[in-house]
Write a structure and sequence with these properties.
Elements: H1 15-29, H2 36-43, H3 47-71, H4 74-84, H5 92-105, H6 109-116, H7 120-129, H8 134-162, H9 168-189
Length: 191
């Protein structure tokens, strides 16, 4: 099935891969909407394509995480973390708890962080400041990000199968409503 734009025009071959990579990179550095939104949209139509998009989104996230790790000495890390408080859904308590988790658990804290809604970008900066080895940080990053992306893609695909009698337009609207509700709850909880 061909992925289409909002105007109904088909995406150029492979363009969805670039979108997944760019979204993974953007969310791992400054953007506040997770790549799962795009990945689950793909999963509604083609689960295999969404799995490939997971790989591309992880690649973008790893690049962003490596950049933040690399620039995050104590001074720059403090500046970045202060700047992150201006991103929706991120507050000082969230930054402090992610830093504490990174200090106590190392890179394995990425798994508990993803379950708690702690943005990856915060962990990347803390890992750089705390001099967590880059290779270990990226390995755990890849595992944590991929597991979450695949899980959300699988859930979206199962929902699409359960609702297969509905038109793609209805599925698209339901997808948008689910993510709007998710972010409404998330942003209210993180105030």
């Amino acid at each position: 099935m061909t992925e289409t734009t909002r105007e109904g025009k088909p995406l150029a071959s492979g363009q969805w891969r670039a979108w997944a990579f760019a979204w993974g990179l953007a969310e791992s550095t400054f953007f506040f909407i997770v790549p799962d939104v795009f990945i689950t949209r793909l999963a509604l139509q083609d689960f295999r394509r969404s799995l490939v998009a997971c790989v591309w989104a992880v690649g973008g996230a790893l690049l962003g995480g490596a950049i933040l790790w690399w620039v995050s000495d104590v001074e720059m890390g403090s500046r970045l973390l202060r700047a992150f408080t201006h991103i929706p859904g991120i507050n000082r308590d969230l930054i402090a708890s992610a830093g504490q988790a990174m200090h106590e658990q190392g890179s394995t804290s990425l798994f508990s962080g993803m379950l708690r809604g702690q943005p990856y970008k915060i962990f990347a900066v803390h890992a750089g400041v705390q001099e967590v080895p880059l290779a270990a940080f990226l390995a755990f990053s890849a595992l944590a990000r991929m597991s979450r992306f695949v899980l959300t893609a699988a859930l979206a695909s199962l929902c699409a199968r359960a609702l297969r009698g509905h038109s793609p337009r209805v599925l698209s609207h339901l997808h948008a409503l689910v993510w709007l509700a998710f972010y409404l709850i998330y942003f209210l909880a993180m105030r």
